[in-house]
Amino acid sequence: MRFGEFLKQSRVEKGQTMQQLSALSGIDQALISKYESSKRFPSDKHLLCLASALDVPVHSLKKEWIADRILQLLGDYDDPLAVLTLAESRVEYLTSQKALQLQDVDEYTKDRLSELDDLHKDWTGKKPLNALQLSKLQEYFNVNYTFDSNRIEGNTLTLQETHLVVNEGITISGKSMKEHLEAINHMEAIGFIRDMVTGNEDITKRNVLDIHRLVLKSIDKENAGAYRKVGVRISGSQYMPPDALQVPELMDDFFRFYQEQKLKMHPVLLAAEMHERLVSIHPFLDGNGRTARLVMNFILLKHGYTLAILKGDAESRLEYYKALEDVQLNNDQRPFYRLIIRKVKDSLKEHLSMV
How far apart are CA 333 and CA 275, in angstroms? Predict the structure, then answer.
């Protein structure tokens, strides 16, 4: 059954005329006619309106809608089964109970974690730092972290320009207002996660939404601190994020996973997991990467580690995206774990060298 046929059948079973459905849903009657004849597909917003007007679960309409779109996409493809098999493996990762399970950590990764634990012990042995040392260290690493995290997302401010914008309040000629705001917002978000650590707070829905709200403050007021309502694609990636209608449930799983694992997993692996899971769910229209990296660094700071900085140059960015895709497409966490372990190790070494 085509989506249009399913829609018409649902309307008829409710004893509604097309005119009545139009009045109840607020959708033009001519457009409903096109939906029922499968000449047009409704948007997510119209699906919600139709489901409400027909008093049917929105997931039932959405399921028929997706099946019809898949049929349309695969109609002229030579090997549709191969495409469906590949898609199934990707969907399974985020939507099945496997999303709440972990693979065993391999010996190589365990060895790297053991080395990291020794460095972490050296770092904690240097504390407490005096107020001036702490202030200088935080200023240096906050600026570097802001520069690279924004650079990953395409911000063109140099490291020096980032410093001038966030610490001196200087406007850089030739740079957009958005780029200035991205730097200022990110610095404020770092302050926010540091305050969360000081206040002994934890990862919650409210805190993650607040971090995202800070990242997009004055840039996109409508979507700052709100889950997306539409589908998205990740530029340059083969991975397709889940449908917008799945986001709330997947984010509930995200927070549940954290609560289940926060006292079991090594904190660096937990930070890497929460980073990758947030990026893969892609719950926001924009700012997913920066928010995920801030969540990761909150977990690291909470456990006495230092800010881990993923570099924004072309080679480093490619390695980062490739490691994420290894999890998203192949469910292979090892490259991403090892990347984050290496970045945490680099950060600890640099902090130790400066004190």
Answer: 12
